[in-house]
Design goal:
There is one protein chain. With 285 residues, the chain is of the alpha/beta class. It has nine helices and 13 strands.
Length: 285
Amino acid sequence: MQISPTHKRILYLFYLRKIKPFLFSHSVQPSNLKIDIIIPLITKDLAVFPYVVDSARRYIMHPLGEIIVVAPDDAEIRNQCAIQNCRFADETTVLPFSKNQINYHIDGMDRSGWIYQQLLKLSGDLIASQRYFLVLDADTVLIRPQIFIINRKLVFNCSDEYHPPYFEHYQKIFGVSSRAPISFVSHYMLFDRNVLQEIRASIEKRHQVFWSRAILNALDRSQGSSFSEFEMYGNYMWQTRPQEIFLEYSFNVSCHRSDLAQLPALVEKYKNGYKSLSFHSWRME
């Protein structure tokens, strides 16, 4: 009997959530792999940002190079970067266009900045100095020790956030369907600069335009969300280097932004079963 893609995904997620943690339980020992951290930031996430940086320094068990904040040139953001001892990178120096040139509006909402931020993540090698760098969302706080390489394999966190338009976009870009039974959408991911450069070169060779233009051209503008940088990178790794990746479940909790005041209590509540807390700006109540 052939298993449907939906049932295959359900079974795989069950395995990652319930079975693999016991089969491959490991104590988190410090890694020798030095990494940079890149945090894309906008002003609405400044309230969470200090906690994000503190948690990264406390719980990422790798030697850290730089923590780089890529953001609009804003005085308050620059000031917070100085306070947190992070390097500021003006986002307009990373991509050869601004978010205003994307013009991605859905049902009256301007989603251009959201797409722009994803393209910045896929350009992280242009501002990081290490071969490997962790892209960490500015609203996500780590709550327990983590490493991103296990038995010489790179750790990828997976989730239930399966969204068909992301996979349709992937097929438009690479000309092949994704075979991954899970979603790579998470709130942080380790990138390899060599793979990123390979991805961009592959896109440009196939589409004969600048890589970001090809991504923008492939957007389904009838969808509020039709592209994911994490889904693209994770699926590319799944298809081209499956032997180099180690899948884990993301174990993330979505919290109300107002709950940030109770962060110590939340960490104590969730630290034994979860890896991170996300304080999304759309959850302001």
